[in-house]
Specification:
The complex is a heterodimer of chains A (about 280) and B (about 270).
Chain A: H1 5-34, H2 45-52, H3 55-88, H4 92-106, H5 110-121, H6 126-133, H7 147-170, H8 175-183, H9 188-216, H10 220-226, H11 233-244, H12 247-274, H13 278-283
Chain B: H1 4-34, H2 52-59, H3 61-94, H4 100-112, H5 115-129, H6 135-160, H7 164-171, H8 176-204, H9 210-213, H10 221-229, H11 235-258, H12 261-265
Helix pairs in contact in B: 1-11, 2-11, 3-4, 3-6, 3-8, 4-6, 6-8, 7-8, 8-11
């Protein structure tokens, strides 16, 4: 059914007005505020302050370092799960159980999921008691409230997103291509490396982008799992808005985070595009 | 036929995948387990079995208020997002109005933009207009972040289905409006249900957005747990957290029963 332009404008008008009023304009306000001082004068002072000493650059560095590691680990854990669900499992029932296990954490709050890891990683937690029982260490290891625990917590949040994105693409791969490779004498490892994996690259690219963006802006996991000992950008932004009430400087931090994220994503896509197998992945 | 190395490879894959799935499940199972402990502190394995931590949090009205607030925001924001998302999706797929690609991007942008930035922006904007830290501020923020989930699934359903059904309805004399309600809506319903469930859950579990506009009297349950866990962890907060896990289980089961979880998770073309 074709909808005439007049009616379509009417249909989309109110929704668009809503998004403009509560999404576009607020975002615009933040960008404007980042270029203003507290008394409303235009200035670059907020950005100068971010770059002024090593404090905020080092927070940016930690944020992106942890996000990058968490993205890589999510890929290493998530890809095999997606591959298994789509290409190995035969029965629909087993596939559904796998999906339920993947989606259940997704339906639980970040705070609840991090809380689970607090119990597991604490000095008397299951991980430490297991390590000690196995004789791998004689003293509880400090895992909780380190960068390692932030990475574990982030990875835990992110794996389901990676699995679902990669599985979505794996599912669209024409099975006859895999059969052709096997028929022509390639073993399963070669078939995977030369056929399945290259064809699944769009999913890997999309998945890693989603996961990385989520990791960079994660607030709950780093605040809980760092015990306040490591600070990431999202925590600084909230501190400015929530307890220091410096909206202008907070805005500059938010815009800074966004800009650096977008630049890194652009670099990543540029790098992938230069690889022969990656060109297709970026286009789609 | 599989060769020996291929069998080894398959075995390793299986072991790795089930370790991965265990990694996803264990933290949630641990919370549920320790919420029944009889001790005053958190311990694993839990000692004994008691429901007193659940009784304690159900007796505290501030938690019930938070749960009520979260449920109300989740339902209201999902309903508004449906009312916004369906007309927008219709205009995007069924009209030749220029600029629809941009409109689509605007509606999906909240998925990519850091939630913490959206939260900050809404607090700043609401402060300017005088509705900061209010129910309205929380609600509109939740609508913005759940709209993409509705729009995506509705767009997918609209793109997939056979448009001759709508034409037949129009040819037989039904008006475009009744065609929408009698033909289009029933067909996109599974996609809409899946999108709505995702929207409800995304709102229900949100901390990053709500925390900016929350107050002591107006605090969604995930924010309340977040604030609590930063100062103390005890079996009661495990019981509250376990409660939200039960909600997740119910939601996933509903999704599987009504739509089929494998169809929602990775829709085939």
């Amino acid at each position: 059914m074709r909808i005439r332009n007049g009616w379509a404008a009417l249909l989309v008008g109110v929704p668009l007005a809503f998004m403009a009023a509560f999404f576009l304009v607020p975002f615009f306000v933040v960008v404007m505020a980042s270029f203003q001082t507290k008394d409303g004068a235009w200035s670059l002072a907020n950005y100068a302050r971010i770059l002024g000493d090593s404090y905020y650059p080092s927070i940016l560095y930690v944020t992106f370092k942890l996000s990058l590691i968490a993205t890589l680990v999510s890929f290493v854990i998530g890809y095999p799960i997606a591959y298994y669900i789509v290409n190995v499992v035969r029965s629909r029932m087993a596939r559904r159980i796998c999906y339920i296990l993947v989606i259940m954490p997704l339906f639980t709050s970040n705070i609840v999921r991090s809380f689970g890891w607090m119990i597991l990683l604490g000095r008397q937690g299951l991980v430490n008691t297991t390590l000690m029982t196995l004789g791998l260490t004689d003293r509880p290891m400090p895992i909780l409230f380190t960068e390692l625990s932030i990475i574990i917590g982030l990875t835990y949040i992110l794996v389901p997103f990676m699995v679902l994105t990669v599985a979505g693409v794996l599912q669209t791969i024409d099975k006859s291509l895999v059969e052709a490779a096997l028929d022509l004498g390639a073993n399963r490892f070669v078939t995977f490396a030369k056929v399945t994996f290259p064809l699944s690259l769009p999913g890997v690219v999309a998945g890693s982008l989603i996961v990385f963006t989520l990791a960079v802006s994660a607030y709950v996991v780093p605040s809980i799992m760092s015990g306040g000992r490591t600070v990431v950008m999202a925590m600084s932004i909230f501190e400015q808005y929530g307890s220091l009430f410096d909206f202008n400087f907070g805005a500059a931090l938010a815009v800074g985070l966004l800009v650096v994220t977008l630049v890194l994503i652009a670099l990543y896509l540029f790098f992938i595009e230069r690889q022969p197998a990656g060109r297709q992945a970026v286009r789609s | 036929m599989m060769t020996f190395p291929e069998r080894i490879g398959r075995f390793l894959l299986l072991a790795f995948v089930w370790a991965g799935l265990a990694f996803l499940t264990i933290p949630l199972a641990i919370i549920v387990a320790v919420s029944f402990t009889e001790t005053e502190y958190l311990t694993f394995p839990p000692q004994g079995f008691t429901l007193r931590w659940y009784e304690q949090f159900l007796a505290d009205t501030s938690y019930l208020d938070s749960i009520g607030l979260s449920a109300s925001i989740a339902v209201a924001s999902t309903v508004i997002a449906i009312l916004i998302g369906i007309p927008a999706a219709l205009a995007i797929t069924r009209s030749q109005l220029p600029g629809m690609k941009l409109v689509n991007t605007i509606f999906l942008a909240p998925l990519i933009l850091p939630t913490i930035v959206i939260g900050a922006a809404l607090l700043q904007y609401a402060s300017m207009l005088g509705f900061a830290r209010s129910y309205t501020a929380l609600l509109v923020g939740h609508v913005v972040i759940v709209v993409p989930y509705i729009l995506r699934t509705v767009l997918a359903s609209l793109a997939r289905f056979d448009q001759t059904l709508e034409e037949a309805s129009l040819d037989l004399g039904a008006s475009p409006v009744s065609t929408f309600f009698l033909v289009t809506l029933p067909i996109i319903k599974p996609g809409l249900v899946a999108g709505a469930l995702f929207a409800l859950i995304i709102s229900w579990i949100n901390v990053e957005l709500s925390i900016f506009n929350a107050t002591a009297a107006l605090m969604p349950i995930p924010v309340k747990i977040f604030n609590y866990v930063q100062y103390a962890i005890d079996p009661m907060v495990a019981a509250i957290s376990a409660g939200t896990i039960y909600v997740a289980i119910v939601a996933v089961v509903l999704l599987d029963v009504f739509v089929g979880i494998d169809r929602v998770a990775a829709p085939s073309k």
